[in-house]
Design goal:
The chain contains one helix and five strands, in the order βββββα. By secondary structure, the chain is an alpha+beta fold. The longest helix has 18 residues. The chain is globular and about 40 Å long. The chain starts with a strand and ends in an 8-residue tail after the last helix.
Length: 84
Amino acid sequence: MTIRFAAPLYPGGRYCLLCGTVTVGAVYPPAKDGDGWLWRAAITDKGQPTDGWEVAASEQAAKNALLARFRDFLRAAELEEVRG
């Protein structure tokens, strides 16, 4: 399976992390200046979503954190990411 971020459907919208056609998490831009980027993994190695939202200082930091959390799930499930 491949994992990728889908572009927002509208300006200022969320980036969804997809594994195939399944949404496994999302990254939201700041609501106002000075706020951080919010992210949350819906599928984790713990078998359930994380409690609440995590905050990152930048879009890239939020995406990296979400990818890391999902890759933890893949390792726990003994699955491999297909990179294309």
